[in-house]
Amino acid sequence: MKATIRKNDPTNTRGRVLDAAAGLFSRKGYADTSMQDIMAAAGVTSGALHHHYSTKKQLGLAVINERVAATVEEAWIDPVRNAATAEAGVRKAMTDIIADLKEGSIAGCPLNNLALELAYAEPQFGSALQPIFDRWTQVLARQIGATGFALAGPAATAEEMATLVIAAYSGAMTMAKTGQSVQPLKAALKLLTRLLEPAPSIGPADA
Amino acid sequence: MKATIRKNDPTNTRGRVLDAAAGLFSRKGYADTSMQDIMAAAGVTSGALHHHYSTKKQLGLAVINERVAATVEEAWIDPVRNAATAEAGVRKAMTDIIADLKEGSIAGCPLNNLALELAYAEPQFGSALQPIFDRWTQVLARQIGATGFALAGPAATAEEMATLVIAAYSGAMTMAKTGQSVQPLKAALKLLTRLLEPAPSIGPADA
Asked: Burial of B165 by CB count in 10 Å (0-12 exposed, 13-18 middle, 19+ buried)?
């Protein structure tokens, strides 16, 4: 049998495989996606796929490190870092995400989807996913620390508030996915941006 | 072949099957759990299992309606309904849940696990899961409406605040599962209870 012609653009094949796998994992879940599904979606042969990833687990880890992390960077971390205040950054990130969603085909946040499906059953996935949450929290906490927040007070730190914001966004996306409606995200956006208004307008609640 | 002896306690067999399936779906995910896994965990024969549920999908829907809904009722809705204020109810629910978690074996919230895995890929699951989020939101919104909240103002409704609380709890549980740490839940508990402090202590932020 003749060897298949090696196109010698491994980066592109790899990129297509990662894109296809990231999309399928988000829409169908990791467990329900087969290597065959990924080959078909990426338009690559079994040989080409296995040249890059010999197991689905290797591919899953690459999707986390090279696609999920990049999505969070682009959708959340860049807007937060480039905004003048935490409130403006969260508003920009969530407004753009909501605008991009189409009710009826809300597949959810790729980070949260994989985290809920795999973080516990596959500890290696948990270890790959946690640094993404950590970085997201740290960048947001830095902005919150600089501008303060409406519920200020000695007891809550900027990191705790960043955790709340990320948790609320993540949970609202799960609810949006369940009901195929952007309403939970709109409610979260409204309240989180109010919560992140700089502190001076009202005094600490329990000083 | 002799028919297996029918013990005539279908409720109990059914209950064991539902318990086993609910546990496996939470820990391993729905897609990764086979009917064989459920038979083994429940200690029932294939005949007994299929007598009650001929497909995994039927069983999945029964787990949502009879186990996941009951878990949310017991862990969240009862404490919220029985408390004097929304703040006290949320504090009680989250404090008890955090106390029950063991780091290293945090499997997450059964509702959110199934919602993220299946709500989009299996619309029937989404339709079964959505009423659980709706009821949870309504009961909490009723309490919040009665006591107000620290971030009060004409623009935010009690239902939006209830959505934020449920979203933040849900997302914090995902983060807890990812990092196998209760810290995100503790941060959410601290800030959500402060947010739910009755309004009179501070004025509306943007009146």
From this structure: buried
